[in-house]
Write a structure and sequence with these properties.
Nucleotidyltransferase, domain 5; 6 strands; globular
Length: 163
């Protein structure tokens, strides 16, 4: 089990609770929309609508037509996956530096993990221990570079020369 099975949100005002997807759940567009987005993540995110840009990667459940339509309605500052280039960790330093190959993963996997329950426990513990200033710094890097907006303005194409 990897950290990808955890839904989360991070911003300069704090972080949402973690949402774990059970290993036996078949992740499809309907589950993603009904359970993760509508029930769990969107209510948390909507507290910060004035300060929030919603972006997700190109996973099939994220690209599903119904998911995109839901997010266009529910999130005023939604960036659809067709405008989000793949494999660009520099456009999402919060996720990349803290969760993906960064700090949280390093802390969670510092020793062997025997089962899914232990993995969940470790992820939750490390998430709770993560200092907010680390998140703030990663968010600040993202905002400082303004790469996200430039990438969207370029339609996901080359944009560095415009910065």
């Amino acid at each position: 089990m990897q950290l990808q099975n955890v839904a989360h949100n991070m911003h300069v005002f704090g972080r949402t609770n973690l949402r774990f997807v059970d290993p036996d759940v078949k992740m499809n567009g309907q589950y993603y929309r009904d359970m993760l987005l509508t029930r769990d993540l969107l209510p948390d995110i909507k507290q910060y609508l004035d300060y929030f840009t919603f972006q997700q990667d190109g996973a099939p459940v994220h690209r599903a037509r119904e998911t995109v339509e839901l997010l266009k309605v529910e999130m005023p500052d939604f960036i659809p996956t067709n405008l989000w280039p793949s494999n660009r960790p520099d456009l999402n330093p919060v996720d990349y530096n803290i969760r993906g190959v960064g700090l949280l993963q390093e802390r969670v996997y510092k020793t062997s993990i025997k089962d899914v329950d232990e993995l969940r426990r470790r992820i939750a513990e490390e998430w709770d221990k993560l200092d907010q200033c680390i998140i703030d710094k990663a968010v600040g890097e993202w905002q400082k570079r303004l790469r996200l907006r430039a990438c969207v303005a370029a339609g996901g194409g080359q944009f560095e020369h415009k910065m």
